[in-house]
Design brief:
The chain is mostly helical and 101 residues long. The chain folds into two domains: 37 residues; 37 residues. The chain is built from six helices and no strands. Helix 2 crosses helix 3. The termini are far apart.
Length: 101
Amino acid sequence: MKAWKGFTAAEEAMVAQLYANGRTIAQIAEILGRRTSSVYVVLVRSGIPRRHHWSKLPKTETTKILELRRQGLSQSQVARVLGVSKGRISGVCHRHGGSAP
């Protein structure tokens, strides 16, 4: 197992900003080339409360989901494009008038 490689102050600020903007821990880890557990440690040490899985997506993400569905992409394709779960896409579509494009 690799040893803990600390984050720079700039990386910690980026983690906080990305998380505040609605990115998931997994997405942040991928962006920074780090493990999800390392990103989680930064959030905990910074005193940033973890969002629950049912947290609302940012309005821009919801708009993007609906636009991609209108363009004819399936829920699975939209999920892959945006890096969120298919269930999340399904929930947004359900709340905004059904799942059909």
